[in-house]
Automatic annotation (TrEMBL):
PANTHER family: HTH-TYPE TRANSCRIPTIONAL REGULATOR RV0890C-RELATED (PTHR47691:SF3), REGULATOR-RELATED (PTHR47691). This is Tetratricopeptide repeat protein. Keywords: Repeat, TPR repeat. InterPro entries: TPR-like_helical_dom_sf, TPR_2, TPR_rpt.
Length: 355
């Protein structure tokens, strides 16, 4: 039903690159082709090579380099009057904005990308851009608004046999089920996405699916060792492909698993590691979530309650500034869990929320 996964963001002279190509290899090849295109005065090719450069930088956590690269790609595409290439550059910029926690900018750039993709007749970039909009809303916790879009994109991906996008949509829907406490459905969807990714040789998608499975195995079943084994398998892929952001989220999830198991000192070390990684790549959402896990671990290890309460209050404000609608709920859950007065922060207590 599904063919081998491919990477449509590797274009022009870079179409031979695999979805599993090391990001350092992608960056080297993309930079070489970009310089050749600029020397030859071929802005269209420069735009498409520059897209790969931008994406490699973004996934490596080099946000400033990624920002310069996607903008240069857009300028080259506009010079070449290449509408689909303009759309791809905007998609890259919107994805970077979401990674940096700039959700309003992300939505604007991704909507522009979707519109240009439709105008330029490129259904792939249109689909990727709509998927980006759906993921942005999901990350912010606006499940009602984006749930239908996720389902629509999943149906389209299944119909076209696009393994990579099917995996993405399944994982997004699974995450929403997990965050609302429907663990059985979440696990089934994560498991299906892992199977599809494995058959399609989509190692990145497989790593994210394993991470989701590990989360559910930990929170639903209390099976710490199996969860850690799944995370170790995913981590090997993240390291091989140099997936900096995915690796940091893997470490944060390992902290979650250890925390649930009552192994607070080990959890603290993992949260500290993830926090440093997120700070290095300027990813505020991951940074705030790691801080929350760290604050909870320190509280369990005997930190002063007043210091913990102050930290949680500060985190509530930080998460809200980023634009996460479920921020108050996450912090409220921490107040309840630790038995600390919430000073008016808490709302209704949901199932524990994760990413």
């Amino acid at each position: 039903m599904y063919g081998k996964a491919f990477a449509p963001e590797y274009q022009g002279a870079l179409t031979t690159l695999s979805v599993n190509s090391s990001l350092t290899d992608v960056l080297a090849a993309g930079t070489e082709q970009l310089r050749a295109a600029e020397r030859a005065g071929k802005p269209g090719e420069a735009a498409r090579s520059g897209l790969a450069v931008a994406e490699a930088h973004r996934r490596l956590g080099r946000v400033e380099d990624a920002d310069r690269a996607w903008k240069a790609s857009y300028r080259a595409a506009r010079q070449a009057s290449d509408v689909p290439a303009m759309a791809w550059a905007l998609w890259s910029g919107g994805t970077l904005a979401r990674q940096r926690g700039a959700f309003r900018l992300a939505r604007r750039l991704l909507q522009l990308a979707a519109d240009l993709g439709e105008r330029g007749g490129d259904i792939v970039v249109r689909g990727y851009s709509l998927a980006g909009l759906a993921e942005t809303g999901r990350i912010q916790g606006d499940y009602e608004a984006v749930g239908r879009l996720h389902e629509q994109l999943l149906a389209e991906a299944r119909r076209r046999g696009e393994a990579r996008h099917t995996v993405w949509a399944l994982e997004g829907i699974a995450q929403m089920h997990r965050n609302t406490g429907d663990y059985d459905t979440a696990y089934a969807l994560f498991e299906e996405s892992a199977e599809i990714a494995a058959r399609a040789d989509d190692r990145r998608g497989h790593a994210w699916a394993l991470r989701g499975m590990a989360d559910v195995v930990s929170v639903r079943d209390g099976d710490t060792e199996r969860a850690l084994a799944l995370l170790s398998e995913a981590e090997a892929t993240c390291r091989a492909m140099r997936l900096s952001s995915a690796l940091a989220y893997n470490h944060k999830m390992r902290g979650n698993v250890l925390y649930r198991a009552g192994r607070y000192a080990e959890a603290r070390a993992l949260y500290e590691q993830a926090l440093a990684e997120f700070r290095e790549m300027s990813e505020p959402r991951g940074e705030a979530l790691s801080r929350l896990g760290l604050a909870k671990s320190l509280a369990r290890l005997g930190r002063d309650r007043a210091e913990t309460a102050a930290e949680l209050a500060e985190l509530a404000g930080a998460l809200e500034r980023i634009g996460l609608q479920h921020a108050r709920k996450m912090v409220a859950h921490a107040y309840d869990e630790l038995g600390i007065p919430d000073a008016g922060v808490a709302e209704a207590r949901p199932a524990e929320v994760t990413r």
